[in-house]
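Progress note, sequence design subtask.
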């Protein structure tokens, strides 16, 4: 059973405030995209699938460890589906990851793969417990305070049994919008769970995040 990692870099990164898509900008001397590729290679993942914008060649020379390249879609869900479609038939497990999270903990990926291999789950996401007080609001009015002890913030990588998530995407991917892959998997009836992420696994979305990432690299993360 082979494991593939789909690394998503199909967005234009307009929220980052940079003129170049942020996934291709140099962070500590190498493209942001390559941090995730190299971590998956170090984990021994069998195949790296890069999902890239159509004109990526203007900004990025693909890492030699990338096995296949799929085109990005108009929305994240379409990018994921494009990546799933080109995975070879022997793929048994698949990892889906946003390239804008370069500091994910490899231990969480190892834990998730083991749980999938033992057939205890169909889908898993790295996650951290919520630490702030949360409120639910309707029309500007507070209607509830959810129990924080039951709330987690999901991250990527997210890990799945390949056939299960591919079928879920084919069934639901064009019908409604989901904020991540695990929520789509859950809506599709898959057995879903969480593994440990950490606070360093933040998503780089703006200049403040980029400056923090540069500091982390400089400090020898």
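Output:
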């Amino acid at each position: 059973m082979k494991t593939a990692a789909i690394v998503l870099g199909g967005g234009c990164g307009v929220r980052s405030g940079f003129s170049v898509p942020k996934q291709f900008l140099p962070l500590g001397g190498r493209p942001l995209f390559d941090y995730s590729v190299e971590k998956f290679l170090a984990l021994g993942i069998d195949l790296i699938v890069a999902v890239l914008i159509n004109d990526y060649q203007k900004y990025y020379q693909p890492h030699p460890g990338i096995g296949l390249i799929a085109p990005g879609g108009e929305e994240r869900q379409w990018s994921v589906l494009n990546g799933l479609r080109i995975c070879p038939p022997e793929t048994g497990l698949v990892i889906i990851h946003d390239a804008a999270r370069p500091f994910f903990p490899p231990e969480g990926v190892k834990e998730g793969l083991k749980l999938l291999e033992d057939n205890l789950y169909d889908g898993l996401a790295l996650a951290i417990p919520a630490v702030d007080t949360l409120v639910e609001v309707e029309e500007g009015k507070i209607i509830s305070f959810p129990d924080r002890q039951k709330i987690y913030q999901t991250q990527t990588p997210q890990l799945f049994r390949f056939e299960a998530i591919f079928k879920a995407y084919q069934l639901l991917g064009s019908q409604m919008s989901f904020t991540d892959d695990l929520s789509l998997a859950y809506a599709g009836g898959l057995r879903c769970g969480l593994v440990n992420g950490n606070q360093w696994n933040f998503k780089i979305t703006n200049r403040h995040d980029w400056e923090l990432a540069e500091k982390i690299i400089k400090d020898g993360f």
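The mean pLDDT is 94. Work on this subtask will continue into the next period as scheduled.
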